[in-house]
Specification:
3 domains, five-stranded antiparallel beta sheet, alpha+beta, Immunoglobulin-like
């Protein structure tokens, strides 16, 4: 602090500047202590910030990385053919070499016409020996006009019903290409494609079906619903293609002999579902009265009439109030149906399984002509 002069003291010989400096020394000392304390606080803050940064790095980076399995593994592994086989060593791995030997390989399900080629109907003219029309491959007289060609197709995980009507084959001239498309376009109940591909190679006259998904659980399964369908696939002479190796160890393929598609006729049948037999009175009795709500207009003039048919003939069974209220049972009802069937030669058999509480009616005739109908008329 400097004072150029103070009025009234000029010429007095007093050193005013020195006097002021001496008077301000105590204040200057306080200021210096405050400045030093501020500096110490700043240094302390900087050190705390540095420590916090180091702790954060250790916790979220160093320690986190340290806990990872890849960091803890003391051993590593490598493969001479990483495309085919890869390996990872864990903490318990020992220093040693392993050899992987492939003894067999899974392959996709694949059906292909064998060297026998596709057969045509014996009545087909010579110029149709390589015809693509299904009506030339199969004897159309063997096709049931109501059923046509029908089969269940499965890929090992899901299945779908496939049909070609008689008119599509005979009138619309469906071809082997159309049959192949049935496989390629097949979808399961959820609308998902089944991953199957059907194709016809006209150059080699060969039909093939391929499952694009590999593995032992992925298959091609065809179940014929009638004899004509089995005969059609037998005409295609489909064999199973599988992987194989030649004498030098090179991968190749082989085809089995033609698969024989057989059809086992079944009978038309009606039987109680898993829901069981419902009783009107909530009981578990076998009397017909327990099945009928007799309070709903049931009187002495009431009858229950129903007709059982096999597709070409039928018989009518009548039940009166006296029958129902007189203790007629489900077993007695089966007997009445059987008696009527025997009298009219229907070939139908009814039965009641009291142990499982199941009622069933069966047409004993097998095959496509096996039909069963029940028409009920209640008055």
């Amino acid at each position: 602090m400097s004072v150029n002069g103070i009025y009234g003291l000029s010429g007095s010989g007093i050193d005013v500047d020195s006097m002021v400096k001496v008077g301000m020394m105590s204040r200057q000392s306080e200021y210096n202590k405050m400045a030093q304390k501020q500096q110490i606080n700043q240094w302390t803050k900087d050190e705390y910030s540095s420590i916090y940064s180091d702790l954060s790095t250790y916790n979220y980076s160093t320690l986190s990385q340290y806990k990872m399995q890849s960091t803890m593994n003391a051993m590593t592994a490598s493969s001479t053919n990483s495309v085919a086989v890869s390996a990872t060593a864990n903490g318990a791995a020992a220093a040693m070499a392993h050899t992987v030997q492939v003894t067999s390989m899974s392959s996709n399900a694949y059906l292909l016409t064998t060297d026998e080629g596709i057969s045509r109907n014996a009545d087909t003219a010579d110029n149709k020996s390589t015809s693509i029309y299904l009506k030339d491959v199969l004897d159309v007289n063997s096709i049931d006009q109501d059923e046509g060609i029908a089969f269940t197709l499965s890929n090992g995980k899901s299945s779908v019903e496939v049909k070609l009507s008689y008119n599509e084959i005979v009138r619309d001239d469906q071809t082997l290409y159309d049959l192949a498309a049935k496989f390629s376009n097949a979808k399961d109940s959820s609308g998902e494609t089944m991953g199957l591909t059907g194709s016809y190679d006209s150059t080699n006259d060969a039909f093939s079906i391929y499952n694009s998904t590999g593995g032992s659980k992925n298959k091609i399964e065809i179940t014929a619903h009638n004899a004509a369908t089995g005969a059609l696939f037998n005409q295609l002479h489909l064999g199973a293609v599988s992987l194989d190796y030649d004498a030098e160890g090179n991968q190749t393929s082989k085809i089995s002999g033609a698969i024989n598609f057989t059809y086992t006729p079944s009978s038309a049948k009606m039987t109680t579902t898993d829901a069981g037999i419902t009783r009107a009175d909530g009981s578990t009795g076998t009397n017909l009265s327990s099945l009928i709500d007799t309070a709903a207009g049931w009187d002495a003039t009431s009858t229950i009439d129903f007709t059982v048919g096999n597709g070409s003939a039928s018989a009518t069974i009548s039940l009166t109030q006296a029958d129902v209220d007189g203790g007629l049972t489900l077993g007695d009802l089966a007997t009445k149906i059987n008696d009527a069937s025997n009298n009219d030669g229907l070939g139908i058999t009814a039965s009641y399984d009291a142990v499982n509480d199941v009622f069933s009616i069966t047409n004993n005739t097998t095959g496509g002509s096996s039909k069963l109908s029940i028409t009920v008329n209640t008055e």
